[in-house]
Amino acid sequence: MSEPILVVTALDSYYEDFQALYKVSLTLNEGEVVAIIGANGAGKTTLLRSIVGLIKSKSEQVKYRGQAIGSLRADQIAATGIAMVPEGRQLFPSLTVEENLLIGGRIKRAGPWSLDAIYELFPVLSERRKQASTSLSGGQQQMVAIGRALMSNPSVILFDEISLGLAPVIIKNIYEALPGIVQDGMTAVIVEQDITKALSVSSRVYCLQEGRVSLQGNSSSVSREDISRAYFGIS
Ligand code: ATP
Prior knowledge:
The strands form two sheets. This protein has a six-stranded mixed beta sheet with strand order 6-7-8-3-9-10, with helices on both faces. It has one domain (6-232): Rossmann fold (3-Layer(aba) Sandwich), CATH 3.40.50.300. It has nine helices and ten strands. By secondary structure, it is an alpha/beta fold. Helix content is 33%, strand content 24%. Adenosine-5'-triphosphate is lined by residues 15, 18, 20, 38, 40-46.
């Protein structure tokens, strides 16, 4: 088997004195979709923010293609090929749809994604390209956030709470777009509240509980009992 594309090793993360992650380890193999589940406050967002450098780690705690990146700045990590679709979209409200997408494209990496490719994936964004991003529905804003991340042609894409607060039809839409997004070997991490959905789209799953990995396994073989125990701490 080839070397994993991303390895997180014994990661501790802090918000000042508060420790949010305890010795979290995670491996991503190239081309797979991995789900991260866990209750509110379990540390899922903190893990993603640590990977993309928004929270500093020790250099060796995060390795990308064998290179220690834990102490790099967020922009340097983005340039290596890791992008995040943040929880709550976090678009630039004063900019149009297209301007928001172009911001992602400022990181110049070769790959299949361009404005045209994003508009093909989400045609509604093409119709609204000149509109302020704030005039869009929540689901459409999520599409902009996904498009903005794709515009950097990442090798690894991290989706935080991919379907939170979206209408079921939009969630379906976004999940239908997923195979096209992970095409050509792109590797994806999905943080998802809907456990059934998380398991159905991923090959492997990690569960976090109070900042620790409480379960990891193949999505097709973990049992509901294992997940309940890992998620809620019920033994
Ligand atoms: P959610 O599903 O609610 O987003 P999560 O699993 O993503 O939860 P995190 O947001 O990573 O969890 O939070 C992990 C822990 O860190 C929680 O106890 C949370 O209160 C704390 N935390 C998160 N952000 C901050 C912050 N900016 N300052 C201090 N503590 C924080």
